[in-house]
Design a protein that fits this description.
Blueprint: H1 21-33, H2 48-60, E1 64-68, H3 71-82, E2 89-93, H4 99-106, E3 110-114, H5 124-131, E4 136-142, H6 151-161, E5 164-168, E6 176-177, E7 180-181, E8 188-192, E9 205-209, H7 212-221, H8 237-241, H9 256-267, H10 269-288, E10 302-303, E11 308-312, H11 318-330, E12 336-337, H12 363-369, E13 372-376, H13 383-400
Parallel strand pairs: 2-3, 2-4, 4-5, 5-8
Antiparallel strand pairs: 1-9, 6-7, 6-10, 8-9, 11-13, 12-13
Helix pairs in contact: 1-9, 2-9, 3-4, 3-7, 5-6, 10-13, 11-13
Length: 402
Amino acid sequence: MADTASTEFTKDFTLQEPIGNEGIERAMAILKSGKLHRYNVDPDEKGEAALLEEEFAAYMGKKYCLACASCGSAMYLALKSAGVQPGDKVLCNAYTLAPVPGAIENAGAVIELVDIVDDYTIDLADLEKKAKSEDVKWFMLSHMRGHIANMDRVMDICAAHGLELIEDCAHTMGATWDGKKSGAFGLAACFSTQTYKHMNSGEGGLLVTDDPDLMARAIIYSGSYMLYERHTARPDMAVFDKIKTLVPNYSCRMDNLRAAILRPQLKKLDAQCARWNKRYQILERGLNAIDGITCPARDPRENYVGSSIQFSLIGQNEATIRRFLADCLARGVELKWFGNKEPVGFTSAYDSWQYFKELPVLANTKRILAVMCDMRIPLTFNADDCRLILAIIKEVSATVLK
């Protein structure tokens, strides 16, 4: 590659690919019909939201699916519908994004954070230690930034200690562990369709489960107005009859417009995941070849989706990391850092969540996040863009990381 010392990267790290023609056409049809509300359908007509639920349930190999306003609302509904009560303790990995503990807090539960290890996944020894407590029944596992823990061990721990697992799959839609889809392991799983995720409707979420009682409660909680028969990826109506007057309405629905945009994207999801991974693998190989930078090795059983990449500047202090980030940004390469004491944009470390009754001291998590950098990989970047980003990071590293 030619000398890039004066070259800047000029593409936007937040710019996603446009919505495809089929999605635009479906959206226009909804707009022209005026039937944006998911229950505004003719007799015997399936709305776009109901069709999306059918199709995503089939994609996941699950019995039931509910389209929600966001992944955060899907997580909240999953917790409430699973039976989490105010004051219940919910385990959650400390490396995650704010909507995950936010959903637990919203359910009135007590959050207990679990440490992480150097490959950015949950610390299974710490999980097992905390799972042994008699007052722990629930576990919200966040597959943060697409890093999937050893799910065989996770499920062994859950089985041994009676933990009910709910998966946050906001970053692992389309991923698998040892051939099994992420989100197919626990009692329920929640997915995001926010703009920066693997399908884009601006905001949105999907909740899947095989449990009929959980799904019936979730549909009513979501705001079905006794119109749950218009859901088609649902349990039998008899399941609703016994609870229909006992479950409140929290209005967390997805509308037909967003569902219409998403349905064509689901058809292309696996192909899109493969495109992300080509970019990820170029970046991963290049970053690991730069002195002072490391991307932890990934388990061969993990078929991840590389829509973002994380790497560590091991042994560097705060001042050096801040200079590295600033110099990369000056050249157009936008990196996020989980070591900031204050939350910045979408990035926050667990010790900034001051609403916790008592923040734990998790030495490993703090050590790992203190040197972790994070970068989006939008599909608007091509292979040459990835190589230019690497060249810039390498040049900055040679100057800053000594």
